[in-house]
């Protein structure tokens, strides 16, 4: 008897749920519905030591260090069409006693530059790491330029270096992608 009661209650609940979901629904407005997901993902990172900025074999400073990362997810047509805005967040931790300029150059499959921007990083000390944070918003035509890229070149520039340069420069970054379908 108890099982019959449970089945009856479940049936009445399911029927009520079905009716309440369909009643007064206007399917003519279905085209006006927009799905707007927000996706966060790690972007690029690096960890350079002070010694990375000096060529000890040739005894000369290496004032520019480059790193290239493929970014294949822009290849997806649905992603390209739905992307409305991107927010990049950069967190640099610097214990090297020098300021740095960090340039982000986005390149197409044929190595044409589609987008470029730069951040400045404050000098730190061996005793005291300095954190520099930066945010870059990509909107409008820049979004189209960004989606035409399939790799990013990160160019780290230091004003001077020698064989005794100590410390580290670290980057953590993420991208927040605002989509609409």
General description of the model:
The protein is 19% helix and 43% strand. Strands 1, 2, 6, 9 and 11 form a 5-stranded antiparallel β-sheet that branches. Strands 5-10-7-8 form a 4-stranded antiparallel β-sheet. A two-stranded antiparallel sheet has the order 3-4. Strand 7 and strand 8 form a beta hairpin.
Task: Sum up the overall morphology in one term.
Answer: elongated
Number of strands: 11
Give Rg in angstroms: 26 Å
Count of alpha/pi helices = 3
Sheet bearing the most strands, described? 5 strands, antiparallel
Low-confidence stretches: 1-17
**Alpha carbon gap, first and last residue:** 50 Å
Structural class: alpha+beta
Order of helices and strands: HEEEEEHEEEEHEE
Mean pLDDT: 86
Strand content: 35-45%
- Residue share in helix: 10-25%
Task: Outline the secondary-structure elements.
Layout: H1 2-22, E1 38-42, E2 46-49, E3 54-55, E4 60-61, E5 64-70, H2 77-82, E6 83-94, E7 100-107, E8 113-121, E9 130-139, H3 141-147, E10 151-157, E11 168-179
Quick recap of the structure?
This protein is 19% helix and 43% strand. It has helices at residues 2-22, 77-82, 141-147, and strands spanning 38-42, 46-49, 54-55, 60-61, 64-70, 83-94, 100-107, 113-121, 130-139, 151-157, 168-179.
Keyword list:
five-stranded antiparallel β-sheet; 19% helix; alpha+beta; disordered N terminus; 11 strands; four-stranded antiparallel β-sheet
């Amino acid at each position: 008897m108890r099982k019959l009661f449970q089945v009856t209650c479940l049936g009445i609940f399911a029927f009520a749920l079905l009716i309440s979901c369909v009643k007064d629904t206007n399917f003519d407005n279905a085209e006006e519905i927009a799905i707007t997901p927000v996706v966060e993902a790690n972007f690029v990172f690096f960890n350079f030591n002070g010694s990375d900025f000096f060529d000890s074999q040739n005894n000369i400073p290496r004032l520019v260090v480059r790193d290239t990362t493929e970014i294949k997810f822009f290849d997806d047509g649905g992603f390209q069409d739905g992307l409305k805005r991107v927010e990049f967040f950069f967190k640099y931790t610097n214990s090297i006693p020098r300021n740095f300029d960090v340039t982000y150059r986005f390149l197409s499959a044929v190595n044409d530059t589609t987008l470029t921007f730069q951040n400045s990083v404050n000098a730190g000390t061996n005793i005291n790491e300095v954190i520099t944070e930066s945010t870059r918003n990509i909107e409008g035509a820049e979004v189209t330029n960004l989606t035409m890229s399939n790799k990013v070149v990160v160019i780290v520039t230091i004003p001077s270096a020698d064989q005794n340069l100590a410390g580290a420069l670290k980057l953590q970054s993420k991208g927040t992608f605002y989509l609409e379908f």
